[in-house]
Amino acid sequence: MGVPATPGCTRRAALMRVGALAVAGGWGCGPAPAWAGAQVEEPLADAVRHALRAAVEQLDPPEPSFASAEERARYVRWLTEASWRLRRRKPELRARLDFLQTVWYESRRAGLDTALVLGLIEVESGFRRWAMSRAGARGYMQVMPFWTRLIGDGDPDKLFHLQTNLRYGCVILRHYLDREGGDLFLALGRYNGSRGQAAYPNAVLAARRRWLLG
């Protein structure tokens, strides 16, 4: 059941429910159009291709691990607040928690800011799993199908799978950041196929600010 759907559901009660599920570890249609650009297929050195291929393989379950109780508590607070903010776009609670947990896991695995990844997803697909752009980019992070041929098994339909899409998207963004020497503006432009133009990076960075949670 979605959090906001019942008249008697208060914000406090909804947040407590999310937090309780997180502590307990209880996570267990056709494509819609998306506003997005298109990553450009570029030659990859063999070493880069092999590294990227290794990075997208072995989709372990996105189970968070924590070094301390304090770190776990911070995660639960983040998950609770992020879930509340996302409730209108993803009204079903379990799906929302699965999505946020996977974003958190994959962004950290790639060394990316989680708020940045959420901002990019908001701009690219509006948090729609089945989004597809006119250029053929797929899923939450609007990954172009050629990436599955370059560094995957060649099956673009897998880009609609939650963790696969986020794994590819985060690995690709990390690759572009490394290629641009850490320049986020250029890396975001390259991700969207609009390198050097301000509109897309500015939109993602503005969306990122909405996901900076205490």
TrEMBL record:
Cross-referenced CDD domains: LT-like (cd00254)
Segments forming domain Transglycosylase SLT: 107-197
PROSITE patterns, sorted: TAT
One Pfam family matching this protein: SLT
SUPFAM superfamilies cross-referenced by the UniProt entry: Lysozyme-like
InterPro entries for the chain: Lysozyme-like_dom_sf (IPR023346), TAT_signal (IPR006311), Transglycosylase_SLT_dom_1 (IPR008258)
Ranges in coiled-coil conformation: none
Family: Belongs to the transglycosylase Slt family.
Protein's name in the database: Membrane-bound lytic murein transglycosylase C
Naturally occurring in which organism (per UniProt): Tepidimonas ignava
